[in-house]
What we know:
By secondary structure, the protein is α/β, with parallel strands linked by helices. It has helices at residues 33-43, 57-72, 96-104, 121-136, 232-253, 271-281, 292-295, 302-310, 312-316, and strands at residues 4-6, 9-19, 22-24, 47-49, 81-85, 111-115, 140-147, 167-175, 182-188, 196-197, 215-216, 222-223, 229-230, 263-266, 319-328, 332-341, 349-351. It has one domain (1-188, 230-357): Thiolase/Chalcone synthase (Peroxisomal Thiolase, Chain A, domain 1, 3-Layer(aba) Sandwich). It is built from nine helices and 17 strands. It starts with a strand and ends in a 6-residue tail after the last strand.
Amino acid sequence: MPPFSISDVRLSAVAAAVPAHQVRNGDLDLLSEPEGAAFVKAVGINARRVAPPEICASDLCVAAARRILQVAGVRPEGIGVLVFVTQTPDYHLPGNSMLAQRRLGLPASTYLLDVNQGCAGYVYGLASVASLMSAARIGKGLLLVGDTITRLLSARDRSTLPIFSDAGSATLLERTSAAHPMHFNLGSDGEGADVIYVRGGGAREPFGPESLRMCEEENKVVRAPIHLSMRGMDVLHYTLKYVAPNIKELLAFANADTDTPDYYVLHQANHILNQCLLRRLGIAPEKAPETLLDYGNTSCATIPVTLCRRLGKELAQGEKALVLSGFGAGFSWGSAFISGESILCPELLEIHDPGEC
């Protein structure tokens, strides 16, 4: 679709939550000591957050939502729309949006929507919530975005296990005539649908004994059909093919150039890929904060995790222009150009047990 703008909605606050349990890649039996050191240097991921079995994506997102409502002084009955983006819902049904509505005490009139999106999901979610709020003249909306993606990983897959991490987030949007326009540029290419893929466990290949059968594939990767598979070089190819032009087109649509944004908050795929993207765009690395080293690739939650962990103080002080860009499963991508003033980003929450959610 062509780029589009929403003129009467502002991003007011962002909160993020991660499991307290940390796993260091240097401690993985899957990698030898020299391999682990080389991996950290090249990919940029030293440690990841892994949720215990009793904590799901809904728990992390609800904890972030409660935090954001508290710091923003917003009552639950004021929320008119809630969109929940995740690839790891608690159940096949009902959707996570309904679980979150119940736990947060949102009114029965709240519009609820569940979106199965990957690493572009945060930007897709922003566009969805902002569009609904603008069209239906809704005063306040919540976007919940998160995954416990480590549940989908094979412990014997060197291509995914050292990369992915768990997190959840909540974003508050408010409708106001004083808002700067939010500009969006979204796209997808279904030819890349199998680049990041979980084959087993759905309606096409229902869960059964074969879903758990471990098989050795190329490069000594061992996984079962219920595990996530990823072709890293194809992800790099699609990202450079589509994401760099997408960001350039977005900036042109917003009458901006690459120097205009104060920060570029990119999906935290891996250090190599992000550096390639920055070079392709001619963007200085200091304008693109990273959280890879300590938090890994938290799937659809990497953008809000990075906003809270790296830019909380900056966003609370004066007006900032941001490009937010996510890309991944689908293959899909999306970028947003947002100018905001005094955006609240409380410190990252660490969740130790379900009682904190």
